[in-house]
Amino acid sequence: MTADVRLTDALHRLPHGAEFRFVDRLTALDPGQSGAGEYAIRGDEPFLRGHFPGDPLFPGVLLVEALAQLAGVIAQADPSQAPLPGLKLTAIRNAKILGTGRPGDVLQLEAEITGRLANLVQARGAVRVHNQTVLQADVVLSGGAEN
C-alpha cells in the first residue's frame, strides 16, 4: 500500500472535516511508529484574515493541531492496532512555540508515537518552517468507546 493510500485511509478515520485538516501529504510513514508530512499554508484560510489583519500568521495553537493530526494519521495507519473511532487531541505537554508560518510557507511536520495504552496514544513531534523549528510538543490523543 502506498503512503498516499495510507494517508487517505487514515485521514478518513480522523474526525476532522477537510476544512480543518492540516496535513496535505505524507513524506514518510512507519505505520504506528513515526512519520513526516507537510501542510502548505495557502493564504486563503479564513482564520488568517483575523490572525492578524495585514500581517497573517499561522496560529501557534494550529501548529499543535497539525502535529496532533499527523500523530493521529501515524497511529491510525498501524496495521497491528484497530483504528480508534473519534480520535482527538486530549492533552498537550511541553509545548514550545518558537515561531510560525506565513502564507506561502510549508509546514514540515514530524511525529513519533512514544506510547500507546488502550484508547490513548502519546506522541512527540516538531514542526519546522524553512528548516527552522517553530514548534516542539508532546501530545496525547484519545479515541474509542470510552472517548
Strand order of the largest sheet: 1-2-4-5-6-3
Tally of extended strands?
Answer: 6
The CATH architecture can be given as Roll
The radius of gyration over CA amounts to 15 Å
Mean pLDDT score: 91
Alpha plus pi helix count: 2
> Could you state the order of secondary-structure elements as H and E?
HEEHEEEE
Shape: globular
> Can you tell me the CATH topology?
Thiol Ester Dehydrase, Chain A
Query: Number of folding domains?
Result: 1
Structure classification: alpha+beta
CATH class type: Alpha Beta
Low-pLDDT residue intervals, each spanning 5 or more residues: none
| Residues in helix, % | 10-25%
Q: What fraction strand?
A: 35-45%
Provide the CATH superfamily: Hotdog Thioesterase
Q: What are the main properties of this structure?
A:
alpha+beta, 147 residues, 19% helix, 38% strand, Thiol Ester Dehydrase, Chain A, 2 helices, 6-stranded antiparallel sheet
Please explain how this structure is put together:
- Helix 1 (3-13) crosses helix 2.
- The longest helix is centred in the middle third of the chain and has 17 residues, at 60-76.
- This protein has one domain (3-142): Hotdog Thioesterase (Thiol Ester Dehydrase, Chain A), CATH 3.10.129.
- The chain is an alpha+beta fold.
- A hairpin with a 2-residue loop joins strand 5 and strand 6.
- It has helices at residues 3-13, 60-76; strands spanning 25-30, 34-40, 88-97, 106-117, 120-129, 132-142.
- It is 19% helix and 38% strand.
- The chain contains two helices and six strands; from the N terminus they run H-E-E-H-E-E-E-E.
- The chain starts with a helix and ends in a 5-residue tail after the last strand.
- The model has no long low-confidence stretch (mean pLDDT 91).
- The protein is globular, with a radius of gyration of 15 Å.
- It has a six-stranded antiparallel beta sheet with strand order 1-2-4-5-6-3.
